[in-house]
Amino acid sequence: MAEIGQEYDVIGPTELEEIKEALANTGLTTAVGAIQDYFEQQEHVELNIAVTGESGSGKSTFVNAFRGLGDEEEGSAPTGVVETTMEPKAYLHPEHVNVKVWDLPGIGTPNFKADKYLEEVGFQRYDFFIIVSSERFRECHVQLANEINKMKKKFYFIRSKIDCSISAESRKKSFNKEKTLNDIREDCVRGLESIGVTSPDVFLISCFDLGSYDFRRLQETMKKSLPQFKKYLLMLVLPNIPPQCYLKQKHIPHPINVATLC
Ligand SMILES: Nc1nc2c(ncn2[C@@H]2O[C@H](COP(=O)(O)OP(=O)(O)OP(=O)(O)O)[C@@H](O)[C@H]2O)c(=O)[nH]1
Ligand SMILES: [Mg+2]
């Protein structure tokens, strides 16, 4: 789990100002009351993250990795080579019940309708979405991204199973890892741009190798866009990747290098 440093303090600058004001204008008892009220409110704050994408793209595996679990540990989401997740299911962090990662059923059947799907999975409850794609950018991603945009919610786009793509391409004589990664990224960026997402950011991830590729950058990006207490909750649950893995991590230079989507 992430260590809580100053950067992730629960009380943000606005709250600090309010507490200072209470101290200056009304005295200690009122200030203590203000702090207590603040913490009581926060106890009820939840962070709800929805993981969506095509069937078999690795959503449940990502949910497990996100919670710092392997696929066969107690309480982990079932994963498999055949369609596995049929209903939205919330997975709580073992220690921080205020954070729910929702494993959603797969999309992508020929008659898929993103608006209907999102209604069925109860889109209102989610703070943001993670769209997982294990292959090329497709029509179902277009629909999903469009609908999420319409709802004025944020999404992060993950291209998963990067280890598989690299391993398959590495059989070619002309294999170049950086170029392969760049091609994958470009394909997703182009797809998102074609539906009007400005400066899209795409995260290349292997759940079997979180220290490589973009997992760490995804963590950092998600953190930036949340309000103070939700950011704090997220920091409590993010899996720790050993520092030696960060060193291995390579960021592929990309002309569009903007941190957030939407
Ligand atoms: N090599 C590799 N395999 C992965 C990765 N992520 C998932 N898989 C495998 O892909 C298969 C499908 O993974 P799931 O997590 O069950 O996929 P899902 O999207 O939840 O599938 P549904 O629940 O059916 O919609 C499993 O065999 C996983 O082990 C990855 O990063 N690398
Ligand atoms: Mg699943």
TrEMBL record:
UniProt KW keywords: GTP-binding, Hydrolase, Nucleotide-binding
InterPro entries assigned: G_IRG_dom, Immunity-related_GTPase-like, IRG, P-loop_NTPase
Gene Ontology CC annotations of this record: membrane
Entry-linked SUPFAM superfamilies: P-loop containing nucleoside triphosphate hydrolases
Positions of the IRG-type G domain: 45-225
PROSITE patterns: G_IRG
Pfam families: IIGP
GO MF, one example: GTP binding
Family membership: Belongs to the TRAFAC class dynamin-like GTPase superfamily. IRG family.
Protein name: Interferon-inducible GTPase 1-like
